[in-house]
């Protein structure tokens, strides 16, 4: 062996060797890379073609499985989007109403819209003794943002007689703006509310309404006996 081939073992083969490549059965680097698996199986397995088909089929199944898992993960991520927590919403003051906006006359258009909404919902012209239960259920599930609400009874005497337009409703509280531009929070618990619409007066028992407004519309309510305060 020459000195140059010893110092540089990865040099290309000499021309005289390459000329006899076919006779010496020498494979090029490209052939080695492409046929490595087939050549390996040919030397170690009795039926390499069958084994190669099995391995190829397994690779296809594995590829389909990976694609299915990826697609499933993407679908889940679309349906399960992260939402702001209640604590973070309070910190960001998303539902905070600025003091300079807390004027009764600013929310009169909201009250007019609410009256139109309730008239379409209840359909007063169709009320009869036969459908009072259905009307009561509609009133219970209705949205009260914009309602002109009055506290008729409460275990806390200072709340009784408070009247105003509902600006915000949570699970346990009605937030209203009064005629003298005062923003008040009235608890639903142990309070009775009333509102008038056309010739009808409706009474709401706060103990039965301790549900978020967004959940109340599609919730099934059970019949409960009402104990007056």
From TrEMBL:
Q: Which InterPro entries match?
A: RNase_P/MRP_Rpp29-subunit, RNase_P/MRP_Rpp29_sf, Rof/RNase_P-like, Rpp29/RNP1
Instruction: List UniProt keywords, sorted A-Z.
Output: Nucleus, Phosphoprotein, tRNA processing
Query: What would you give as a GO molecular function for this chain, any one?
Result: ribonuclease P RNA binding
SUPFAM superfamilies, per database record? Rof/RNase P subunit-like (SSF101744)
Q: Which BP terms in the Gene Ontology apply to this protein?
A: rRNA processing; tRNA 5'-leader removal
Where it sits in the cell: the answer is: Nucleus, Nucleolus
Chief location bin: nucleus
Which GO terms of the cellular component aspect does the record hold? nucleolus; ribonuclease MRP complex; ribonuclease P complex
Per the record, the similarity remark reads: Belongs to the eukaryotic/archaeal RNase P protein component 1 family.
Quaternary state and interactors: Component of nuclear RNase P and RNase MRP ribonucleoproteins. RNase P consists of a catalytic RNA moiety and 10 different protein chains; POP1, POP4, POP5, POP7, RPP14, RPP21, RPP25, RPP30, RPP38 and RPP40. Within the RNase P complex, POP1, POP7 and RPP25 form the 'finger' subcomplex, POP5, RPP14, RPP40 and homodimeric RPP30 form the 'palm' subcomplex, and RPP21, POP4 and RPP38 form the 'wrist' subcomplex. All subunits of the RNase P complex interact with the catalytic RNA. Several subunits of RNase P are also part of the RNase MRP complex.
Q: What is this protein's function per UniProt?
A: Component of ribonuclease P, a ribonucleoprotein complex that generates mature tRNA molecules by cleaving their 5'-ends.
Q: What is the recorded name of this protein?
A: Ribonuclease P protein subunit p29
- Please report the organism this UniProt entry assigns to the protein: Octopus sinensis (East Asian common octopus)
Q: Which gene encodes it?
A: LOC115209005
């Amino acid at each position: 062996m020459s000195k140059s081939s010893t110092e540089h073992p990865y040099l290309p083969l000499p021309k005289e060797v390459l000329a006899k490549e076919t006779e010496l059965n020498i494979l090029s680097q490209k052939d080695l890379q492409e046929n490595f698996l087939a050549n390996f199986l040919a030397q170690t397995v009795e039926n390499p073609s069958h084994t190669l088909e099995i391995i190829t089929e397994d690779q296809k199944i594995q590829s389909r499985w990976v694609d299915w898992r990826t697609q499933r993960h993407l679908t889940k991520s679309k349906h399960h989007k992260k939402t702001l927590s209640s604590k973070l919403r309070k910190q960001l003051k998303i539902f905070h109403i600025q003091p300079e906006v807390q004027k009764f006359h600013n929310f009169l258009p909201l009250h007019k819209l609410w009256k139109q909404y309730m008239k379409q919902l209840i359909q007063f012209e169709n009320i009869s003794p036969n459908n009072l239960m259905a009307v009561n259920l509609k009133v219970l599930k209705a949205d009260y943002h914009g309602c002109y609400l009055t506290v008729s009874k409460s275990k806390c005497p200072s709340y009784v007689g408070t009247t105003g337009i509902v600006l915000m409703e949570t699970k346990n509280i009605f937030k209203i703006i009064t005629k003298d531009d005062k923003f008040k929070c009235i608890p639903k618990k142990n309070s009775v509310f009333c509102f008038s619409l056309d010739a009808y007066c409706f009474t709401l028992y706060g103990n039965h309404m301790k549900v978020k407004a967004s959940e109340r519309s599609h919730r099934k309510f059970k019949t409960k006996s009402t104990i007056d305060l």
